[in-house]
Amino acid sequence: MTYTATPALVLGAAPRVNLMPRAEIERRANRKLIGLWGRGTVLALLLVVVTAAVTFWLQSSATQQLNAENMRTTDLLGQLAELQPVSAKLQLEAELRDLRAEAMSTDLEWAALTSTVGAALPESVSVSGFALTAGGAPVADDPSAEVGSYGTLTLTSEDPTDVVALVRSLRDVTGVRSVDSWSASAETGLFEYTVRIVFDQSFYTHAYEEGVTP
Known about the structure:
Layout: H1 22-103, H2 110-120, E1 125-133, E2 147-157, H3 163-171, E3 176-187, E4 190-200
């Protein structure tokens, strides 16, 4: 069984009749729809315009930034070109400093060497000459472990002196690795003694090593 609902009857309400023609109703609906489409189109056009403006602004900013970086790069390249002679001079200076350090690695403290040797001799004996050859470059942290300069010392005395005692006194000197007698002579009233001697590297000045200002 099927039931059909019927509009409820409202008692006491004013009668209402829609007398607007159907064509007018459709025209108004169409006009409203066209208005909605128009506003949508305007909004879409505004969105396109804003997007294009933002894109143009971003592209313009990126172009300006790129031009600024290119100018900065060009300026830096110019500065590097100007500093190239300075760089070449600094490199040459470093090379010359290394060469000097290598050539002077066996530089001796002559005053310290002669005074140390002289302090071990008797008062009547003095160092009158020496002929020393530079040893090898420093290779160890302990200077006493490597051979330094070596050669001969000439000792002079007005009176005869026991050369064996002289040799023994020199062997006890710090920095002397070995010493032995070579010759003795007496001329013009003076007695000369020549001894062969080997020093370690403790008498090297190390004045031209890297980080040391001579």
